[in-house]
Amino acid sequence: MENDTFTPELLVPAGDFEKLRYAFAYGADAVYAGVPIFSLRARENDFTLTSLKEAVAHSHQLGKRIYLTMNIYAHNSKVRPFLDSFCELADLGPDGFIMSDNGLIAQALRLRPDAVIHLSTQANATNWTAVEFFRDIGVKRVILSRELSLREIAQIHEKVPDIELEAFVHGSICIAQSGRCLISNYLNHRDANQGTCTNSCRWEYALLREKESLLAVEEMQQPRPRYQPLENRYAVTEKKRPNEVFPIDEDEHGTYLMNSKDLCAIELLQELRDAGVCSFKVEGRTKSLYYVAVITRAYRRAIDDLMDGRPFDKNNLLEVLSVSSRTLMTGFYLKRPQHYGENFCDGDSLPLTHRFAGIVRGTQAETGLAVVETKNKVSCGDTLEWLYPEKTVHAPVERICSSDGTEVSEVSGGLNCCLPHPAPAADFCLLRSPL
Ligand code: SF4
């Protein structure tokens, strides 16, 4: 990265093989994929050793890169299986391994000195001495802690210029320091550091007065209890800090004590690149194929604009906002998020501007119609947006055929139907409807 002309890599999550294909089609330079058992997000992972082999081969055929995530903190019983699995996976020839556990990194490099190791954000490298340390033990890239500012990243790059720096540009943020958290483990025995976080920080909590709690516990066994407004405003204080009061607001949806907004740094790509970041990472191996495609395309265009000297195009931000997401912020890059970094009002989404309508699975040979796997209801007269990697085509739905060929006025989500193509048929087409 000594040279000023480097183009940052766009690194996108691939929760399964299909998402990997769409990620590349919509502009990713590289993907990261989980290894069963040994990556955080283990539950959602659809890859097996066989499909990972295909995934590595497919990525390389396209001239793209694939990194395998093995970022658990292992207990003793997992060390041997981890290292056996690591050697097996190293034989597949991935472009790197994303790891956290210092001991496992050292062992892995002993077993395979040529392996490319990227330090996971889970390891929380927050300063240049940590980055220097990992460089010295043979780590090729550090995925920086999400809690760093642009200034801190630039300082790290200045002090340790000979290591690759990767930073998150989009997706969820932990309320704890990047996953070092016991909330999920405490509440339902699923450990974030063993790959099974249940995002409990974003759950909808109810505030109960002590005397009501037994009744409330019983009520919770029933269908959702009716909302009873609290009589007073509530706040939390701490014994030794009498002058600090933390209000807790509750509405009919509940109360959200720890609910972080999501990260969106699409407007800060120039700054991140200037700070020395060579890989822009999108979070979310559990996100949908539609999410992966839309977010990848928006960031691809923003990176291309940046590298071609064009000004930031606000349409890319609108595209990002069109996908279901919690409210967004720029994380820690510009300033430390205080209250504005949390969403105390709800746990879910911004109002959607579009709804995912379907995936075009091919073209019927006899009719030339697009075969669509619908995800939500489509009706005649709706306007659909046909998304392709390089363009979006708006077109009204003039005709719908059900899978047996009969014309119908609408089709429900989950069923297949056929629609006239508004543009020449092309691979990787997705449909959405503006709301
Ligand atoms: S519970 Fe929330 S803060 Fe804790 S690891 Fe999971 S996502 Fe992160």
Plain-language structure description:
With about 425 residues, the protein is α/β, with parallel strands linked by helices. It folds into three domains: about 250 residues, Alpha-Beta Barrel (TIM Barrel); about 50 residues, no CATH class; about 80 residues, Translation factors (Elongation Factor Tu (Ef-tu), domain 3, Beta Barrel), CATH 2.40.30.10. The protein contains eleven helices and 22 strands. It has an eight-stranded parallel beta barrel, surrounded by five helices. An eight-stranded antiparallel sheet has the order 17-16-22-13-14-21-18-19, with no helix packed on it. It has a two-stranded antiparallel sheet with strand order 8-9. Helix 3 crosses helix 4 and helix 10 runs antiparallel to helix 11. The longest helix has 19 residues. The protein is globular. It binds iron/sulfur cluster (SF4). The site of iron/sulfur cluster (SF4) has 12 residues, from helix 7.
Task: Offer a few descriptive terms.
binds iron/sulfur cluster; 8-stranded antiparallel sheet; 22 strands; Elongation Factor Tu (Ef-tu), domain 3; alpha/beta; 8-stranded parallel β-barrel; 435 residues; single chain; TIM Barrel; 26% helix; 3 domains
